[in-house]
Amino acid sequence: MELQKQKKESGEDYSWTDYLSLPFTQNVISETLRMANIINGVWRKALKDIDIKGYLIPKGWCVLTSFISVHMDEENYRNPYLFEPWRWEKIGAAANNNSFTPFGGGQRLCPGLELSRLEVSIFLHHLVTTYR
Fold first, then answer.
1. Cα gap 67→75, rounded to integer Å
2. Residues flagged as binding site for heme
3. Is the pLDDT confidence value at 101 over 90?
4. Per the record, GO CC terms (predicted)?
5. Domain enclosing residue 90, as ranges
6. For residue range 14-59, what is the model confidence (pLDDT) as tens digits?
7. CB contact set of 74 (below 8 Å; sequence gap of 6+)
8. Residue spans of beta strands (DSSP E) within the chain
């Protein structure tokens, strides 16, 4: 609401720095994506025999990587079934968290990550400031 008031008084348009100045909005988006990501998991094919924590995955086998099981694991998130955007203030930036994968990771990180977060931020801003 404060940002909207500032923009009306100054007559300026919204900018990228305004988007970055709303950290709690980013916390809400991160928490929403943690709890209800559009992609629940991805299939990967092992290109060679691989040992992960004592489990052998033979070459050629397919593995389902489940994002939701990581996002709802109590070892990664305390009270994982509770919507708690304030947790991101303690955890830090979502981009630095290896247990947060709604946009994939590494070489397969979604190139639309920032655009999608910006679009949701704009939607939330207008919802919160104009909904009656």
1. 14
2. 110
3. no
4. membrane
5. 14-130
6. 888 888 888 889 899 999 999 988 777 888 899 999 998 999 999 9
7. 80
8. 41-45, 50-52, 55-57, 62-66
Q: Please report, in range form, the residues annotated as the binding site.
A: 110
The predicted pLDDT at position 90 comes to 80
pLDDT at position 105 is 79
First-to-last C-alpha distance (Å) of the chain: 14
Say if 2 falls within a structural domain: no
Q: Are 68 and 58 in contact (CB under 8 A)?
A: no
Would residue 7 count as lying in a domain?
Answer: no
The chain-wide mean pLDDT, for the chain, equals: 86
Number of folded domains in the chain? 1
Per the domain annotation, does 1 fall within a domain?
A: no
Tokens of 68: 């939701």
How far CA 51 is from CA of 46, 56, 58, 65, 99, in Å, comes to 11, 5, 9, 15, 20
